[in-house]
Amino acid sequence: MNQELILPKRLLMGPGPSDVHPHVLKAMATPLLGHLDPTFLNIMNETMELIRYVYETKNQVTIAMSGTGSAGMETVFVNLIEPGDKVIIGVNGLFGQRMVDVAKRAGAEVIQVHAEWGRIINPDDIEKALKNYSPVKAVAVVHAETSTGANQPLEEIAKLAKEYDALMIVDAVTSLGGTKVGVDKIGIDAVYSGTQKCLSAPPGLSPVSLSDKAVEVLKSRKTKVQSWYLDLSMIQAYWGQERFYHHTAPISMIYALHEALRLIKEEGLEATFKRHEQNGRALQAGIEAMGLELFAQEGHRLPMLTSVNIPDSADDVKVRHLLLERYGLEIGGGLGPTKNKIWRVGLMGYSSQRSNVIQFLTALESILS
Ligand code: PLP
Predict the structure, then answer these.
(1) Could you tell which of 147, 173, 179 is best to mutate to test the pocket of ligand 1, judged by most ligand atoms within 8 Å of the CB?
(2) Report field, pTM of the whole predicted structure over 0.95
(3) Deepest in the core among 81, 158, 273, 339, taking most CB within 10 A?
């Protein structure tokens, strides 16, 4: 006989998922309503409003796509890009690379603008590409590059995109709810995120928002969106006034997202950002005080994801194993070129607590000494 799941207690301080807020877990245990029940439709409406609140946007098309962050990424590219469109993508880590793959599969001609892993994309390089390849359909960057801990400034790149009449696409999977995305103020045309990072919910939904300009691009497509499941014109008819059935919304996940966003609103957006900032900086100061070095470019370090150079004296896998075994504490290792070279420590959403900073520093110090 299989046993009921009784699992070890963990503190999730990796690159995501983060710890789920207990109120969110409780919301997920709420009995189901039918997905076209008027009460559930009202929950969907409130969820859209709450997503607008965290993105700081008035965009009409602001919904939660069924699927994880990568589904949000794919949604943006398959809906806005048609075969042959030129797209400039900033690549300074794994998720920029993933965007390239996704955009190419959508038929884009991709122009890659690179920066070393850990560093930010230089807006001058984006401008050069915009000049050289004009007309360009879209410029895409990752706001919080979870694979490296780099915090990409968006203002200048968004201005350039606008100047060259290109759509500005932003990956906000790790940034949303942890640092300001400010969709309308920055001038972002298409943005996607995920529920399992700073929103403190499980993985499973991807909040997506499109500006009016992006909606116009979608409406004036010459070709049908290649993916039936991710076709926003049909999905918007489900989330919007029409309520046309498209697919059955993952009801418990919508409860989770609704509660997660409600909690952020209750704390206040600015207070949430401040908590992430303070805990992130405290962690980084503590790591440096131990004599360790931070990996990401100084001045552009994320508060919710800290990357640390692994000292020569330490064995990457052994240290992470001991953290898990002795302290029930999960952190992440490096990916691609940073494999076995960095640790990635997350302080995202509900996991961003001062007590977690102290617990991690104490645990790491005892293992390394
Ligand atoms: N973009 C970024 C910046 C991420 O950190 C992640 C996941 O870690 C993704 C995209 C992909 O999201 P998911 O793993 O939820 O599909």
Answers:
(1) 173
(2) yes
(3) 81
